[in-house]
Write a structure and sequence with these properties.
With about 475 residues, the chain is α+β, with helices and mostly antiparallel strands. The protein has 5 helices and 32 strands.
């Protein structure tokens, strides 16, 4: 089905997933008020054109298809209202008098949505949808211990009651041999044999891009690992054994180059010199992606325009709303999604190519393959022959392409792993807020009694980060 409002192709729904246009009800003709259906070119009753036309076309239609009386005093019925040729008439008479110009009745044909002309409205709709997706994260961040006090009190009361009952049973059977195994209330299943980590793989450009799309809390540069954890940055080795703490101005979007540690604090981005411990504010950002040599591509929080930061100067590459972007280090090209299409441009802002792919979220380019999110899951578009297929058929929230598959967070907060080779799905853990890739491991956080960070393998072995770091 093609949406009459925005032109989006969809199926199995009575509501357009792109612009929200509903198809559950019929419409009425704006001229004769008779029932009409979508996709009608003209009204079956009066012949009114139901698509956008120029004023000239509408005028010709009414002059050629209506026999209007020539007498100025004669009343004309229009929209079931009687009108006269007087000074206080609400609707003008339509006539063809040789001494006066032909007058056309005022009416409003059904408006068809023009995406190119009305793109501000569609951007507003998608911003609302984006805010709805992010509401879960904002809601969790606003939780306080105070709001959990009633639940804690109720839980303690229940525990005391149950504990008293169990204590009486133990007293009654004190002479019997009973053995009780200690259990944990953590939703994450901790693996007994996963007490140490040995990170041997460095992140690929695709994995790094996925991390920065989720406020990157980790940076691994072969020798040292930088972890943004509880508003601090920790420096450790690949076994997370020897740990040092850095006092830096932020703990997100971590990147290290030379003696400089780059980090974000909410929407601000800083450069921290590891030698002289000086910090310098660089720019305000929404999402940032380092591209090497002290350069960064980033979007702003105000209108999500795309900028390049280089040589201490920010240059606007795209002055309209950017839904997602990616940088190909081999070709030095920037890929950006504006909703209608994905464009490629050089670092001077010159457009090199276009692919008509409707993308409203993050995407990744691996050689000739472009992975992007759709309402059906993760689609793969081949840039070389314009072919397309669905890689993951699941409703998801965030995803990152790894060496042998895709790690993603579905709409039910389940952290999933999809394997390319055997096309299998593995649920790593549930109740996840966000995740980053750390070599062959997955670093994720969740909200239990507070924000807690865990490290896991793709087959579901999980360990608390506190356990490894302590």
């Amino acid at each position: 089905m093609i949406c009459n409002n925005c032109g989006y192709h969809f199926k199995n729904s009575l509501t357009c997933p792109l612009c929200g246009q509903s198809y559950k009800k019929k419409k009425v003709c704006p001229v004769c008020q008779k029932r009409i259906h979508y996709n009608q070119i003209r009204c079956n009753n009066c012949g009114n054109p139901l698509i956008k036309q120029s004023t000239t076309d509408v005028s010709k239609y009414y002059v050629n298809n209506h026999n209007f009386p020539k007498n100025n005093k004669t009343t004309v019925n229009y929209n079931n209202q009687k009108t006269t040729n007087s000074s206080n008439q609400k609707i003008r008479n339509v006539h063809t008098n040789s001494k006066s110009k032909t007058k056309i009745p005022s009416f409003q044909p059904l408006e068809m949505y023009d995406y190119k002309i009305g793109n501000e409205e569609i951007k507003r709709r998608f911003e609302e949808a984006r805010n709805a997706l992010n509401f879960r994260r904002d809601r969790r961040k606003k939780k306080t211990n105070k709001s959990r006090i009633p639940n804690i009190i109720a839980g303690l009361t229940l525990l005391i009651t149950v504990g008293s009952f169990l204590f009486e049973i133990l007293i009654n059977f004190i002479d019997n041999d009973f053995s009780f195994e200690e259990t944990t209330t953590e939703r994450a299943v901790l693996s007994d044999d996963f007490t140490t980590a040995n990170i041997t793989e460095t992140n690929t450009p695709l994995e790094n891009a996925g991390n920065y799309n989720q406020d990157n809390h980790v940076y691994f540069n072969n020798d040292q690992i930088y972890l943004g954890y509880e508003d601090n940055v920790y420096v450790t080795d690949n076994e997370l054994a020897t740990i040092n703490t850095l006092t830096v101005p932020g703990s997100t979007s971590l990147y290290v180059e030379g003696d400089n540690l780059y980090c974000g604090y909410y929407d601000e981005y800083y450069c921290y010199n590891l030698t002289n411990q000086e910090e310098v504010f660089l720019f305000n950002k929404n999402t940032v992606l380092p591209i090497g040599q002290g350069r960064f591509i980033y979007t702003t929080n105000s209108n999500n325009e795309l900028y390049l930061y280089s040589n201490n100067t920010s240059t606007c590459l795209y002055d309209d709303y950017t839904y997602g972007f990616f940088f190909d280090a081999n070709s030095e090209l920037v890929y950006l999604a504006d909703g209608e299409k994905i464009q490629t441009m050089d670092l001077n802002g010159n457009v090199v190519g276009e692919y008509y792919i409707s993308c409203y979220s993050n995407f990744y380019v691996d050689g000739s393959l472009l992975y992007y999110q759709s309402i059906y899951g993760v689609n793969v578009y081949n840039l070389s022959d314009d072919s397309e297929s669905i890689q993951i058929e699941d409703s998801l929230y965030e995803f990152t392409v790894v060496d042998d598959g895709i790690v993603y967070l579905d709409d039910n907060e389940n952290l999933m792993y999809y394997n390319f080779e055997d096309e299998s799905y593995t649920e790593i853990v549930d109740g996840v807020d966000s995740f980053n890739i750390l070599g062959e491991y997955v670093l994720f956080n969740r909200y239990d009694s507070g924000y807690s960070w865990y490290i896991a393998t793709t087959d579901g072995q999980i360990c608390s980060l506190d356990t490894l770091m302590n």
